[in-house]
Amino acid sequence: EPEVTQTPSHQVTQMGQEVILRCVPISNHLYFYWYRQILGQKVEFLVSFYNNEISEKSEIFDDQFSVERPDGSNFTLKIRSTKLEDSAMYFCASTNLNEQFFGPGTRLTVL
Amino acid sequence: EDQVTQSPEALRLQEGESSSLNCSYTVSGLRGLFWYRQDPGKGPEFLFTLYSAGEEKEKERLKATLTKKESFLHITAPKPEDSATYLCAVRDRDDKIIFGKGTRLHILP
């Protein structure tokens, strides 16, 4: 069964450093998403991506964040200068519009 | 402002004791309501998508229904392996997806 994969599973970084979270969506999907979930809180939408451009973004997705689909398979989330409050689980998802599949997540810890 | 409210926050049931979880929503131009199951430390697992009032979908012991203001996830004769957090989310006309806080379900053997 096809699945969304994410790497790394856990990333520890120092405040102010740049991090890149990677995702490989399901191959025939066209819509991709990034979400975050702070420990004990709800899943929060960050950004949706379609046809090689951002289709919608939330208030959380400020200038520190960027997304890219550098090749035909990877989908990345970059945080330019991490803050302590960026510590969370980051989930990638892809969809064929009817079903949305999530990856296992990357746990980001900012020290 | 788009909003999703799930109730109850937590629910403990005996094995075999059927119940329902509620998801109330206000959204500008509903383009889909989703139910997910999330186990601790894992990503949400897709269960259902509903698009219009009156629609129902079933999968094993779960059935999801939708009205213009809320959705229910009915669990029939649950088993301990159904224990998880159940998440509801809506997609609005701008393609944003808003999640509720979830219902933590615990099925006792």
Main traits of this protein?
heterodimer; A: 111 residues; mainly beta; 7-stranded mixed beta sheet; 4-stranded antiparallel beta sheet; 0% helix; B: 109 residues; 11 strands; globular
Provide a concise account of the structure shown.
In chain A, 0% of the residues lie in helices and 51% in strands.
Word description of this protein:
The complex is a heterodimer of chains A (111) and B (109). Chain A has 111 residues and is mostly beta strands. Chain A has strands at residues 5-7, 10-13, 19-24, 31-37, 44-50, 53-57, 65-68, 75-79, 88-95, 100-102, 106-110. In chain A, strands 2, 4, 5, 6, 9, 10 and 11 form a seven-stranded mixed sheet that branches. In chain A, a hairpin with a 4-residue loop joins β9 and β10 (100-102). Chain A is globular, with a radius of gyration of 13 Å. In chain B, the strands form two sheets. In chain B, strands 2, 4, 5, 9, 10 and 11 form a six-stranded mixed sheet that branches. Chain B has a five-stranded antiparallel sheet with strand order 1-3-8-7-6, with no helix packed on it. In chain B, β4 and β5 form a beta hairpin. The radius of gyration of chain B is 13 Å and the shape is globular. The mean pLDDT of chain B is 95. The chains are: A mainly beta (111), B mainly beta (109). Chain A binds chain B through residues 4, 33, 35, 41-45, 48, 55-56, 58, 91, 93, 97-105, and chain B through 32, 34, 36, 42-46, 49, 87, 89, 94-102.
